[in-house]
Amino acid sequence: MVTREELYELVWSTPMIRVAEKFEVSGSYLARVCTELRVPRPERGYWAKLAVGKAPQRPALPEPLPGDPFVWSRADGLPAPVVPTPRQAPTTRTSRPSRPVVGIHGLIRGAKVHFLAGRKVDDDSHLKPYKKLLVDITASRSGLDKALDFANELFNALESAGHRVVIAPSDAHFQRERITEKEVPPKKEPRYDPYGYDRCWSPFRPTVVYVDTIAFGLALIEMTESVEMRYVNGNYIRESEYVPPKTRRYVDHTWTTTRDLPSGRMRLVVYSPYRNVSWSATYQEATNRTLTQDIPQIVKSIESEVAPIIEKLQEAERQAEIWRLERLAEEERRRQEDDWRCIALSVKESREQLEQVMQAWSNVIRLEEFFRGVEDRAQHLPESEHRDVLERLRLAREFVGTQEPLDFFRGWKTPLERYVPLSNRSPGTQPTQADDDDDEDSDEGNR
Question: How far is Cα 338 from Cα 349, in angstroms, rounded to an integer?
Fold first, then answer.
């Protein structure tokens, strides 16, 4: 992993091809990384000029903009922008461009081709492009140009006000607002959607505008209206387009139904992409008024929400901290309970093992006393019987084996050897517990 500053020093101290070899990538790929990180790099011929003392002075590393990546790792591919920590918006904006931004915005340039190259849908349905890293626009084929034109004007107006419009960074973990396409939303969402959750296309990551360091999600969708449709010869057509047969002899097997179709009117949803802050504002066209007329008001409305969003983020962080402390307290309580349980268990197991050691000790001593008693009595027997008893005594000793009672006692573990309580433990010390194999060996010896 390399930071912007580290990469800047590398490319200005070593030829690009050498730096690329260090990261095991091509020179052109590393040049793209520099572009993504906004790191200036030497122009062609720089090192030859440097050798003769005629190289130009290297430019300074520019400050990162909101949404710019700060680091790059070869394992992660091209860098993903990192969202700065939200801060209070300044009263005066120094980043406002000196003149309005015009032309085709970067998110709009080439987007139409990708929207049209998608899954096959009806002409009166929303487009579903295959490409998922696209500007957040949902529209039909007939309404696509209008949607792209409005989005371009809105993005340029936001950029002219000094705000950056980009596709959300991959590591920002922003969430997209659930957008309803119906012009008149139902009072209650149905529990079962017969068309499935994928009825409308949605991008892989939301489109956001950074006002200072605060991100606002932008989603544009062509609204649908309820239209009466008639089924004729295998197709649905609008009831207004239906022409009944002129002759009565012809039986027209048709029926009507109601479907939601794109209306050509747009809805813009501005929302908070932060998971712990819920906020959204909706702007939609009317029959006699387009959204383009409301762009200045939309920009001002977004700017006015910066301070409230910051307050909500700070409150969310405060609640998250409270929840974190409560979770830590709960974990400490469980840790103490586990400690008490382990202490009681270690005392119980230590006592049981000591009793087993005492029992094994008694058995060994009793067995030795028995063997000595047999040996003493055998001294008074005739020679032939004496030899026979001693031989059987040898076999009995071999059968039982040699057992040392002290070995049993040495294998006994005290409660502290089984488990070290938290109060007796130094920081970073793991609890000491009796090894299961040692316990099995001790039990085996006891038997």
Answer: 16
Cβ neighbourhood burial of 19 (10 Å; 0-12, 13-18, 19+): buried
Q: Which residues pair with 216 in a beta bridge?
A: 209
Query: What's at 148, amino acid-wise?
Result: L
Considering only CA atoms, which of 63, 47, 64 is closest in space to residue 55? 47
User: How many C-beta atoms lie closer than 10 Å to residue 30's C-beta?
Assistant: 24
The count of C-alpha atoms lying within 13 angstroms of the C-alpha of 125, restricted to the half-sphere facing its C-beta, is 15
State residue 286 phi and psi, 5-degree precision: -110, 170
Residues with Cβ within 8 Å of 421's Cβ and at least 6 positions away in sequence, in order, are: 339, 342, 343
- Longest alpha-carbon distance in the chain: 139
CA angle 415–416–421, rounded 5-degree value: 110
Q: How many CA atoms lie within 13 A of 190 on its CB side?
A: 6
Q: How far apart are CA 179 and CA 201, in angstroms?
A: 10
pLDDT at residue 434, rounded to an integer: 44
Helix (H) / strand (E) element for 219: namely strand 214-232
Beta carbons of 130 and 118 less than 8 angstroms apart: yes
pLDDT at 334: 94
Residue 202 pLDDT: 87
Q: What is the pLDDT of residue 188?
A: 67
The answer to whether residues 403 and 368 touch, using CB atoms and an 8 Å cutoff, is no
Residue 199 backbone phi and psi in degrees, to 5? -65, -40
What confidence score (pLDDT) does residue 189 get?
Answer: 62
Q: Which residues of the chain have pLDDT under 70?
A: 67, 75-98, 171, 186-199, 247-252, 427-447
Residue type, 230: R
Residue 76: the pLDDT is 60
**Per-residue model confidence (pLDDT) at position 199:** 67
For Cα atoms 140, 265, 104, give the angle at the middle one, nearest 5 degrees: 70
What is the per-residue burial (b if ≥16 Cβ within 10 Å, else e) of 293-331?
A: ebbeebbeebbebbeebbebbeeeeeeeeeeeeeeeeee
- Residue 218's nearest CA partner among 269, 168, 272 is 269
Cβ distance 214 to 306 under 8 Å?
yes
Structure tokens at 132: 């998922």
196 φψ region: left (φ > 0), alpha (ψ -120 to 50), beta (else): left
The answer to whether residues 41 and 16 touch, using CB atoms and an 8 Å cutoff, is: yes
